[in-house]
Design a protein that fits this description.
274 residues, TIM Barrel, eight-stranded parallel beta barrel, 8 strands, 14% strand
């Protein structure tokens, strides 16, 4: 059983939802990535999505684009990101790590070489934004053979056919893009998300995490009421951007702790009401 699946099962047994924060590896500088990852764990992260910087991040809004640009200026490559995960594991960290990025760096390395390197580094999942499920059956099989969950995106425009394709090749969890547009966009329709999630979960047969547009404790709490996980990225990058370098990790931890408390407070209310 994968570490990601185990994490979701343990949380479900506790009546809790997963908190999945995102940061870009190497932003604002490579030396900050490990302290930020540790801050995410201390702030309540159950799984970390670690962005692999890319020069043309088509699905990402301006905030994460800027994070990729800063990391790329420091020469952060896919191999360097894997080295960061390896160092995170060497320090004893157990929190699952999902690499999130684009196909080009993986194709440059080669799928088999990537699978072996990612397994050796301690990667638990990979989400490749521009790998549609119907075109990467072989890639997904290589990931699963290495003990790595291939994670896929679904969107408000996804069809029933796409649900079936994702159910066949994906594992770990589904990342549901809660709105049309890029990361960091606003206008999150919480009622529409609540309507869609049960249907998606029934079709894909795995936990559903919701991201894009979640910016504060209240929206996270409301998403946690209907989804299996809350994914939050752009708002954390903004916290890093506005913080003095020596306070960035502490500020990120404090912000995420507030999100965690709101999500767990919802669970406490449910248990009290029973």
């Amino acid at each position: 059983m994968s570490k990601i699946r185990t994490t979701f099962e343990q949380l479900a047994s506790q009546g809790r939802r997963a908190l999945i924060p995102f940061i870009t590896a190497g932003d604002p500088e490579p030396a900050f990535t490990l302290p930020l990852m540790r801050a995410l764990v201390e702030g309540g992260a159950d799984i970390i999505e670690l962005g692999v910087p890319f020069s043309d991040p088509m699905a990402d809004g301006p905030t994460i684009q800027r994070a990729s640009e800063r990391a790329l200026r420091h020469g952060v490559s896919l191999r360097r990101v894997l080295a960061m995960v390896r160092e995170f594991r060497a320090a004893g960290a157990k929190t699952p790590v999902v690499l999130m990025g684009y196909a080009n760096p993986i194709e440059s390395m080669g799928a088999e070489a990537f699978a072996a390197a990612a397994k050796e580094a301690g990667v638990d999942g990979v989400l490749v934004v521009d790998y549609p499920p119907e075109e990467c059956v072989d890639f997904a099989a290589k990931m699963r053979a290495a003990g790595i969950d291939p994670i896929f995106l679904l969107a408000p425009t996804s069809t029933e056919e796409r649900f079936g394709q994702v159910a066949q090749v994906g594992s770990g969890y589904i990342y549901y893009v809660s709105l049309k547009g890029v990361t960091g966009a606003g206008h999150l329709d919480l009622d529409e998300v609540a309507r869609r999630i049960p249907h998606i979960r029934s079709k894909v047969g795995m936990p559903v995490g919701v991201g894009f547009g979640i910016r504060d404790a209240e929206s996270a709490r409301r998403i946690a009421a209907v989804a299996d996980a809350v994914v939050i990225g752009s708002r954390i990058i903004e916290e890093i951007e506005k913080s003095p370098r020596d306070l960035a990790a502490a500020n990120v931890k404090a912000f995420l702790s507030g999100i965690r408390a709101a999500m767990d407070g919802l669970t406490i209310q449910k248990e009290t009401a029973k």
